[in-house]
Amino acid sequence: MTKWVYTFGDGKAEGKSAMKNLLGGKGANLAEMAGLGLPVPPGFTITTEVCTYYYDHGQTYPSDLKDAVNTALAGVEKIIGMKFGDAKSPLLVSVRSGARASMPGMMDTILNLGLNDVTVEGLAASSGDARFAYDSYRRFIQMYSNVVLDVGHHNFEHILQELKDSRGIKLDTELTADDWKKIVKLFEAKVKDATGKPFPQDVHDQLWGAIGAVFGSWMNQRAITYRRLNDIPANWGTAVNVQSMVFGNMGDDSATGVAFTRDPSTGENAFYGEYLVNAQGEDVVAGIRTPQNISIVGKNKQKSTLPAMEEVMPALYRELNDIRDKLERHYTDMQDMEFTIQKNKLWMLQTRNGKRTAKAALKIAIDLANEGLISKKEAVGRVDPAQLDQLLHPTLDPKFKKTVLARGLPASPGAASGQVVFSADEAEAWVREGKKVMLVRVETSPEDIGGMHVAAGILTTRGGMTSHAAVVARGMGRACVAGCGEITVNYKTKSFSAGSTTVKEGDVITIDGSTGEVMLGEVPMIQPELTDDFARLMEWADTIRTMKVRANAETPLDAGMARKFGCEGIGLCRTEHMFFDPKRIISMREMILAKDEAGRRTALAKLLPFQRDDFAELFTIMAGLPVTIRLLDPPLHEFLPHTDAEIAEVVKASGVDAETVRARGAQLHEYNPMLGHRGVRLGITYPEIYEMQAQAIFEAAVAVTKKGGKPVVPEVMIPLVCTKAEFDLMKAAIDKMAQQVFKATGTTLEYLVGTMIELPRAALQAGVIAETAEFFSFGTNDLTQTTLGMSRDDSAGFLEVYREKGIFEKDPFASLDQTGVGELIEIAVERGKKTRPDVKTGICGEHGGDPASIMFCQKAGLSYVSCSPYRVPIARLAAAQAAIGVEGDRTK
Amino acid sequence: MTKWVYTFGDGKAEGKSAMKNLLGGKGANLAEMAGLGLPVPPGFTITTEVCTYYYDHGQTYPSDLKDAVNTALAGVEKIIGMKFGDAKSPLLVSVRSGARASMPGMMDTILNLGLNDVTVEGLAASSGDARFAYDSYRRFIQMYSNVVLDVGHHNFEHILQELKDSRGIKLDTELTADDWKKIVKLFEAKVKDATGKPFPQDVHDQLWGAIGAVFGSWMNQRAITYRRLNDIPANWGTAVNVQSMVFGNMGDDSATGVAFTRDPSTGENAFYGEYLVNAQGEDVVAGIRTPQNISIVGKNKQKSTLPAMEEVMPALYRELNDIRDKLERHYTDMQDMEFTIQKNKLWMLQTRNGKRTAKAALKIAIDLANEGLISKKEAVGRVDPAQLDQLLHPTLDPKFKKTVLARGLPASPGAASGQVVFSADEAEAWVREGKKVMLVRVETSPEDIGGMHVAAGILTTRGGMTSHAAVVARGMGRACVAGCGEITVNYKTKSFSAGSTTVKEGDVITIDGSTGEVMLGEVPMIQPELTDDFARLMEWADTIRTMKVRANAETPLDAGMARKFGCEGIGLCRTEHMFFDPKRIISMREMILAKDEAGRRTALAKLLPFQRDDFAELFTIMAGLPVTIRLLDPPLHEFLPHTDAEIAEVVKASGVDAETVRARGAQLHEYNPMLGHRGVRLGITYPEIYEMQAQAIFEAAVAVTKKGGKPVVPEVMIPLVCTKAEFDLMKAAIDKMAQQVFKATGTTLEYLVGTMIELPRAALQAGVIAETAEFFSFGTNDLTQTTLGMSRDDSAGFLEVYREKGIFEKDPFASLDQTGVGELIEIAVERGKKTRPDVKTGICGEHGGDPASIMFCQKAGLSYVSCSPYRVPIARLAAAQAAIGVEGDRTK
After folding, report:
1. What is the mean pLDDT of chain B?
2. Could you tell me if B604 and B611 are in contact, meaning their C-beta atoms sit under 8 angstroms apart?
3. Substitution target from B668, B672, B782 for chain A, most A beta carbons within 10 A
4. What is the pLDDT of residues A662-678, one digit of tens each?
5. Residue B775 CA, distance from chain mean position
6. I need a surface site. Which of A701, A784, B575, B892 has the fewest CB within 10 A?
7. Which of A573, A844, A857, A867 is catalytic?
8. How far is Cα B700 from Cα A197, in angstroms, rounded to an integer?
């Protein structure tokens, strides 16, 4: 028989904190605290399994649940010595939801449950305070009606306000017991009016109504949205906590408060918290009364004139401070606690690991380790890698009141301001004039790289989290808001509109790439600072992790940045980005327009010195670290001119007529370029392109080595291979070129030739391909596109619906689809290693910087992950966490 | 030690016909004939393994080959009693290539090898015929120089012609021994002149030169092209046959000829062949002298006045006829034999299974079975399924001398003539006026379906064998030449040009979809006729095969045709084709342009009756056979209007303004529509579309069943599924709709809900998907595109290079990539059956009509294959062959 209900209280508990999945976070921690002997009001937790049962069985409960609840309730009555529904001395309870992860989207708390027209009198008598009793009752009616009966707060506030107005008073505190009694009647009438039924008087009906509301709230739109945004699976379910009430509003010897064992903003080891005398929890949250600091230090720090709890209730403060120590030592982490003081008796209502800023997370982890409370390994596991982004990019000053113009996708973190321009060329021109620009486009393409590089930020109206703009911006560490459909760009008038606002070229806007917000004008920012704690944690992480971390970079700027962030080589240098420079694109186009191989070779010869210099610079910056260079990948039509002006320029430079240029463009047009004439297919059909690139790589490597730099071991990578034969043909040409260069220069050096695994067929054929390929780099962007048959540029629209409907829990382009794409990676690694046990394996798709995907890479046995420079620290930390198997709360 | 050389002759042989892979077809059959005791000139075969060795080792021979050849040669000398290179009585040999499969692209034969300035005199003396000796020598110089030394025939023909001119004679036969002697000197001088070296006089040098030339010819362009066109892998290699010479030109008691054991055109059981008195084999082929019939019957049939061999050499004829019987009984198949009579002695030079027309293949197979020589099973294995196409489509009259204007891809078999039109609308208009049209387009799209249906044939200038035009044309059984790049279409001037020829709208052209040829004017055709033999063979095939054969069809016409061809249900009804009718497309567009779900439902309600009628008609035609209906698959933008006129029409019908229509088009535009918002993704985002289609299916099924037709079991198929969740959401909606219809109509019927497996992820997840999916249909077109990351519409260009370079042996869109895509199918079948042992599995991609792919489907354990109606007979035969494991010569 399944145990559906777990009790706690009186220094005992059936549950414990390790049972979070079953009892939810709140329930598990209440049990843990009770077990520790802390003063916890007795109660019980209905498990998350009941929630799962409820939704699996047409919203019905297990048949034996009712008995279990009754038994648990009887236990509480016994501890407290009061009876639920008793006319004289009624037991009151609170009902709260509690999922495995904290979920603000869920049901509000219901307090004071158990009050009705009879028991309210009992409460009045037993507490000796009729005003308190009726105030409690009206609060209960209000909460219960709102949450369970769907009668909104405003109905009641309206009544209350009218009464206050009619009496000419302002504060609730001025109302008397009789006033509240009258209000209760009015509230009850309102409920009957709104629902057609009287407010429930049976306390057991009240309880089951509340329990049902908790389970119901698991599937409300807010909760679903929150889960989607926070990657929480729907099948986790929520628990329900039923706990005897304690009252912080029973007079000046009562109080309620929240406290953190350390400062959640800075991480400083100082007791931090707020409390209110003679108040219930909701009063603290409501913000009507100004909460007071608990400690004198805190009070002084905030220059508060209100007395601290340490001053007003010194004994209770010491008791709380002792509990603070006990809990932090017990949980070995900073705690967020809720407490209530009822008539000079301290009660603990909740403890949980406290939310904190990235800065605080770092400091707390380092401090706890230094204090000997946790190991360095544990410290490394305590910081959420994704949070590090906060420390690496500027953020908007939260004190500034911003006006949001539109919202798009948070495509690349950081905030930025600049003058709006609508083309990459203009961006470059304006920046040359010393201006700071914001590049606004419907979408971007590889030819916009230059403009994207100089822009402070990028805003697009189309494309998803892995659109060109998003990927490139993340790679550059440039702030980007993508897919901002609320904005309509008009290139002709050089303006964009958002609602009724029109923004013209030159106007200043601010974007926040971490939230997707777009603001008019300049919003003040806070610049990032890398603390010693950051460096320390990275150092610890590096000693723990087993996977290397490389960067995806091709410009010296990016490569330098990546080294600064601690990368251990380049995992992906995308050579095509090197061809868009104005000096080069002309030769590239000449190559594409050439009539024959000889013509192509002539044009390629002009590109050779550029490529050689590019590679020499990268090799120099990486100083002996491995550099993986991917040979040309995109289809040739991406390099062709589009506008008449560009075509005219090409005509002038190449001597080919405009008609031919246009015809070649039409000829190269593809219906599905992602699946078209690209990658190794270019190498097979135009071997001279890859030959030139190989020549540039080897000549650069030789030159840098000769100059006395550390020996360079280039890794030449062939993209989009799907058969061994393709790879072998290209490898033969590369090997031949290497020998040619070595002979000509009298120098020999080591190099590797390997392949991207980015097509399902390549993954399946990995065993065969590894016969000749020396490394595999999983191109998970393309592998996701082909395995799922889903274009990353076209899927933003329906992926949204997919996530809403729970088909995908995460965007498969942001976090690896471990079931589908993951199986192919596992197959490829297994087959590849069987053929070549020392085959180097890495990942260089967007997933290389995603913590969950990095965990997968560790399990799959990859040698390294490669990600955009700004994600290198995140990857270093995530790799360390992966090595020690920490997955936080995400484990299913 | 590897045995590199196999000898034969004197009633013995080291090889046999089963050793074709090692000895090549010719060598294996020579050995077999020798082993049977037939009169075969002695000789030996150098194996195909030597060829493989040769190319694997930088074009060198195994070290022990020379000895093996010398030993074998000594054996031949011993049998014949003559010595190779002997001055008095020299042994002469022929050297011929011989691959596993017959390969006309390979090296020509070299005859009379062993002659030089000395041995020619010996031959003159021993034969007593100096003219014969010198004629033989000059023939040898000419062949050898051409094949081995690369001195073209024309060099020699020129010399010969000059001499004849100077002597005022016309025929070679008028030349004397001295003339030939003189010519030999001139030939030798020419060789020295052209190559810088004298003609080789060492007979062993001659032999090794010839052997090298055979192996070299394996990699010449003609051979490569032939292999590519005939799907022969390069690693098979060729053997070399060295055989002692016999001469059919030693006087009137000598002759040479070829014979078929049955008529290769009709299949009739009559001895059929031709011979020439006093001639060498090449004279028969050269066509200078008119060959004579071997039999009197044959002579009379062809109304020849030349005497038959049966009359001239009755005893030898009887001997040959006995051999004919013996060989046919031995090989149990029609043989193509070559023979030579040297001074009244019959020698057999070759036997092999004779090539034959499809009609003959059928008749011979049936007759051989009826004669008891082979079983019915064997008879079924004897007909090449691909050849059946000849019997199902009109063919060009071979007697007509056609002029080919351009060549494209043979995209859909059959020949057709018609007046050129350049748009689908015009095609329909002209046909309404009673004209016969040929639709010429750069490419076609789904909206051209109507025009394609009424056209006699379709010609496109872009796209490959699996482009839209090709797939649809094959489906309709319409002749189609696709990707004809030699033609440039100009829509504005309504004309196309091919070279210097311009063809205008209304001009008549003829296309041959079996060869890819395009001809100006009308070329006479031969109409197909389905013989009793055809029906008989199909009947036998049906009793043997274990896989069902279904058809891909959606129109009543196609469905009816498919039934006529013996399909056992519909495996793929593409519902989108049903929406392009002018009456429907307007509602479809209204649906796409609708602002909200209500608007879409209104438009869909207009489409419902059409769909219902479509399905009812299909169900009626299929009379109880299963019908698999795929719900809407293509992206919505395919249905939107493109031209201004079309947009105007939509504006008029829908009340939406043109700007909105264009904006919706822009909004729906996709970079990679193949990987975009289509298939089940439409069902997920617009559930109302699939609901309408499900409603139409169930209402139609109920209506047809109620009318007393055989009970209909519709199979509702959801396309492009990649997760179980997608499938489940759609299945729930379909099941709900089924219940709704059953309730409304008071009728219940069986139905299945299944999915396409056309994405790698779906294949991997098949075990999970099979929990709810009742059938799988492998959509191998899309599965190939995604597994290989290759768009079928964009790959024609580089696939050509891929096949030239040997990366792909076959077009993966025409014949299944068994290694890559195949493994995914195997995985899916295995996992699917593990979950649901009785899951129905089928294939409905283009590969369903390809014999090699059908063989794979059998091995993978599929329940059925589905193909275009015109390929149903091919599939029935191929499935039967697959069931008995006949793979012909294609086995690697």
Report:
1. 91
2. no
3. B672
4. 888 888 888 899 999 99
5. 31
6. B892
7. A844
8. 48
DSSP line for B216-230? HHTTSHHHHHHHHHT
Q: DSSP letter at B715?
A: E
Q: If DSSP codes are grouped into helix, strand and coil, which group holds residue B858? A: helix
The beta-strand segments (E) located in A384-500 are 395-396, 404-407, 409-412, 415-421, 437-441, 457-460, 479-482, 487-490, 495-498
pLDDT at B887: 53
Closest Cα in chain B, distance from residue A446 (Å): 14
Comparing CB atoms, the residue among B672, B802, B806 nearest residue A794 is B672
Backbone torsions φ then ψ of B272, nearest 5 degrees: -130, 125
Please name the helix (run of DSSP H) or strand (run of DSSP E) that holds residue B419, with its range, or none.
strand B415-421
Residue B278 predicted with pLDDT over 70: yes
H/E stretch holding A111: strand A110-113
- Contact at CB, B817 and A761, closer than 8 angstroms: yes
Q: Classify residue B787 by its DSSP letter.
A: H
- Beta strands in B20-163, from DSSP E residues, in sequence order: 43-46, 83-84, 90-91, 93-99, 110-113
- How much is the average pLDDT of A267-294? 81
- The question of ipTM being above 0.90 is answered as no
Given a cut of 50, whether residue A888 has pLDDT beyond it is no
Facing B671 at nearest CB: one of A684, A791, A823? A791
DSSP string, A587-656: HHHHHHH-SSHHHHHHHHHHHHHHHHHHHHHHHHHHTTS-EEEE---S-GGGGS--SHHHHHHHHHHH--
Amino acid residing at A298: G
Helices (H) and strands (E) in chain B, counts: 35, 34
Amino acid in position B155 = N
Identify which of B723, B798, B806 has the shortest CB distance to residue A681: B798
- What are B460-504's pLDDT values in tens digits? 988 777 678 887 887 777 899 998 888 889 998 999 999 889 999
Burial class (CB within 10 angstroms; exposed 0-12, middle 13-18, buried 19+) of A253: middle
Is the CB of B760 less than 8 angstroms away from the CB of A786? yes
Establish whether B468 is a catalytic residue.
yes
Count the Cβ atoms, other than its own, within 10 Å of residue B74: 11
Element (H, E) at B192: helix B177-195
A486-to-A462, B525, B592 alpha-carbon distances in Å: 10, 62, 21
Distance from CA of B748 to the nearest CA of A (A): 26
Instruction: Note whether A674 contacts B671, CB cutoff 8 Å.
Output: yes
HSE-CB at A441 with a 13 A cutoff on CA atoms is 25
Average pLDDT over residues A608-614: 95
CB within 8 A of B209, min separation 6: which ones?
B144, B148, B149, B200
- Cβ-Cβ contacts under 8 Å, A676 against chain B: 791, 794-795
- In angstroms, the CA A488 to CA A502 distance is 9
Rounded Cα distance between B713 and B752, Å, is: 7
Comparing CB atoms, the residue among A729, A782, A793 nearest residue B671 is A793
Contact A10, A33 (CB under 8 A): no
Q: Describe the strand order of the beta sheet including A457-460 as a list of residue ranges.
A: A404-407, A517-520, A508-512, A415-421, A437-441, A457-460, A479-482, A409-412
Of residues A631 and B224, the one with the higher pLDDT is A631
CA B348 – CA B246 distance, rounded (Å): 10
Flag if A672 and B673 touch (Cβ within 8 Å): yes
Residue A577 identity:
H
Q: Which of A638, A761, A826 to mutate to test the interface with B (most CBs of B within 10 A)?
A: A761
- pLDDT tens per residue across span A151-182: 988 889 889 888 888 888 887 878 899 999 99
pLDDT for the residue B357: 79
Which residues of chain A does B769 touch, with a Cβ-Cβ cutoff of 8 Å? none
